[in-house]
Amino acid sequence: MSHSEELFEQAQKYIPGGVNSPVRAFRGVGGTPVFFKHAEGAYLYDEDNKRYIDFIGSWGPMILGHSDPRIKAALHAQVDLGVGYGAPTAIETDMAKKVCELVPSIEMVRMVNSGTEATMSAIRLARGYTGRDKIVKFEGCYHGHVDSLLVKAGSGALTLGEPNSPGIPASLAEHTITLDFNDIDGVRETFKKIGDQIAAIIVEPVAGNMNCIPPVPGFLEGLREVCDEHGTVLIFDEVMTGFRVSLGGAQGFYGITPDLTALGKVIGGGLPVGAFGGKREIMEHISPLGPVYQAGTLSGNPLAMAAGLTSLNAISEPGFHDRLTEKTNKVRDGFKAAADEAGIPLAVQSAGAMFGFFFTDAPSVARFDQVMECDVERFKKFFQGMLAEGVYLAPSAFEASFVCDALSDDDIEFTLAAARKVMATL
Ligand code: PMP
What we know:
This protein is an alpha/beta fold. It has two domains: 3-67 and 318-423, Aspartate Aminotransferase, domain 1 (Alpha-Beta Complex); 69-315, Type I PLP-dependent aspartate aminotransferase-like (Major domain) (Aspartate Aminotransferase, domain 2, 3-Layer(aba) Sandwich). Helix content is 39%, strand content 14%. It contains 15 helices and 14 strands. It has helices at residues 3-14, 69-81, 90-102, 115-130, 156-159, 170-173, 184-194, 219-230, 249-254, 280-283, 302-315, 320-342, 368-372, 376-389, 409-423; strands at residues 36-40, 43-46, 51-54, 108-112, 134-138, 176-179, 198-203, 233-237, 260-263, 274-278, 347-351, 354-358, 391-392, 401-402. The strands form three sheets. It has a seven-stranded mixed sheet with strand order 4-10-9-8-7-5-6, sandwiched between helices. Strands 1-2-3-13 form a four-stranded mixed sheet. Strands 11-12-14 form a three-stranded antiparallel sheet, covered by helices on one side. Strand 1 (36-40) and strand 2 (43-46) form a beta hairpin. Helix 3 packs parallel to helix 11, helix 7 runs parallel beside helix 8 and helix 14 packs across helix 15 (409-423). The chain is globular, with a radius of gyration of 21 Å. The structure holds 4'-deoxy-4'-aminopyridoxal-5'-phosphate. 4'-deoxy-4'-aminopyridoxal-5'-phosphate binds at residues 59, 114-116, 119, 142-144, 155, 204, 208-209, 237, 239-240, 264, 274. 4'-deoxy-4'-aminopyridoxal-5'-phosphate binds next to helix 4.
């Protein structure tokens, strides 16, 4: 029995499913989840000291790589000063200023503790600001486990086959309208009928919770137009894409300006941080300035701010995202070449430093129904094969993969050699 198997057995006695977040349980791929002991750069080390090249990066935050010395130093320094005061600190303003500089659509920003809190707060704010109840989301997009947003959601909800969760009152879910990602005509039709009742459209500008689906040309532009025509708040959920697709996020990459943005993952440098921000006029509706309530005991915690700000400063260095995108493209194209060599149909896609691969005959995947047609059984075999070779991919056919700056050319070659070997066995 491996250490992971022993630990998983123990964990299941006390933690539902043995995990604190469902996708970690490996239900999407079978087998025992790997328990990790430490991490350094592009590598994770399990409880048996086996090394893995990591393409999850703690689900996105570790864009620099693990145990980055700059982040460690910032954390150590803050620990010596105190781990939290529940009162204003200078570093919160430094952080807010940095976010506003990097993401120009954000004129004011509020820190929270997770991506879920960020989207939840942005939705409440949009409803409070517009005085409307209905919201539009897209099938297969995941915005955290917010009641209103856990309708036809992606990520773990999709991996476990539960895109609608029990526990959400029908009277709440009825305000959520779910439309097809990348189908602007469907959006226009809905808005023609009830546009003036819709508070917000929330969208992952690159869908990363049904694998990786970039927007088709015109989709994000169309959302912006429709929102402008109907006084609806356009919310980009950039929890995953923020600071990753480009320094200014997907909105910078595609040149579309949302009204509100939800952030998470990279913004915390590995600590629990989220944020939501946007137009000053809307953000001024948040308490204590305005009537829309939102708060947090640990929001803006100095340890989290120290890690997050250090991470944002590091990725602001010139050339960072070009380098990261180049690495991502090498992995993406290498997977495709390995599949071609083995005669396995594979579609690969990416946006900046996130990528996805689909076992499908289709040349590309743009819609949720196409995602559902992919060969999940083949993905599982590929995942398990790569894991055995020491490459840690997301344990679900419905998650995007991430590349970190610490990933070297040798690591990429190691990964692609493993991919060639495993593809040949499929
Ligand atoms: N939005 C998106 C796009 C996400 O990918 C996630 C998490 N994967 C969330 C929101 C929720 O973030 P958290 O898990 O930090 O609550």
